Amino acid sequence: MEKALIYEVIGTAILILMGGGVVANSILDKTKSNGAGWVNITFGWGFAVFLGVIVAGPYSGAHLNPAVTIGLAVAGLFPWSSVLGYVLAQTIGAFLGAVLVYIFFKNHFDATDDAEAKLAVFSTMPAIKNLFHNVMAEVIGTFVLIFVILNLAGPSIKGGSFTGVNIGLGSIGALPVALLVVAIGMSLGGVTGYAINPARDLGPRMAHFLLPIRGKRNSGWSYALIPVLAPVAGAVLASWLYLALT
After folding, report:
1. Distance in angstroms (rounded) separating the CA atoms of residues 105 and 30
2. 238 within 8 A of 138, measured Cβ to Cβ
3. Closest CA to 122 of 1, 4, 19
């Protein structure tokens, strides 16, 4: 596996370890920060992005998100030949990060009776189930993510060969993207839990399905396609608008 893909795995694993960790800290029983709430969770996810980007940015561009990879490819800023490898690396990293969350919080998973809370540590589920509105929430949230990223990165990106160039979150600085994720979570996250990242949802959902979590519910597979496909649609729309305006 080439170095860029290894760092996509590592960066995404850190993202999920810290992001899933802040959810576990906030909602699992008997943690010292139980009940910390939505503000704690949204800032925790923002900081999780920050750390993942810091680690992976110099080597892979730190996409950490198939929606980012696909959005950049649609915009002509990343080679399509590298998309599948990045998406697989991100999904593997997300799965590994979720496994680490389970290991780290094993005693608290065992102490928690709420099966919905246990699933929430791993994957998103809608606050109110409504296919159209759930899809639109993920499309719009991801549209904002990708469109802002493209407008942050766009002026500094030059044409020419893609050789040795990994354009993504790492190329625009970790802090702006971390704040962007916090903003999306604060303003738009309460409807679906703002997956805005297919790997972030699918990898941990697979971990929830496979891990021997005491008293767990089903893994919510009837909803699972929405946080995978809707973010991709949002990314494509954002990239199309970016191209139309540039």
Report:
1. 10
2. no
3. 19
| Pairwise CA distance, residues 214 & 171, whole Å | 41
- Rounded CA-CA distance 185/141 in Å is 9
Integer Cα distance of 88 and 83 in angstroms: 9
On the 0-12 / 13-18 / 19+ scale of CB atoms within 10 A, 136 is: middle
Whole-prediction pTM value? 0.93
Structure tokens at 84: 């599948």
| Apex 177 CA angle, 171 and 179, nearest 5 | 150
Q: Measured between alpha carbons, how far is 133 from 205 in angstroms, rounded to an integer?
A: 21
* Number of residues assigned to the chain: 246
| Cα–Cα distance for residue pair 178/181, rounded to 1 Å | 5
Give kind and range of the element (H or E) at residue 233: helix 226-245
Question: How far apart are alpha carbons 133 and 49 in whole angstroms?
Answer: 26
Alpha carbon 35 to its chain's center: 23
Q: What angle do CA 58, 189, 85 make, to 5 degrees?
A: 35
Q: What is the pLDDT of residues 40-54, one digit of tens each?
A: 999 999 999 999 999
Most confident option among 50-64, 102-116, 172-186: 102-116
Q: Which of 101, 124, 140 is nearest to 224 (CA)?
A: 124
235: which 2 tokens?
Answer: 């990314």
| Domains of the chain, each with CATH number or no CATH | 3-245 (1.20.1080.10)
Average pLDDT over residues 208-228: 98
Secondary structure (DSSP) of 88-109: HHHHHHHHHHHHHHHHHTHHHH
Question: Which tokens in the block code for residue 201?
Answer: 């949802």
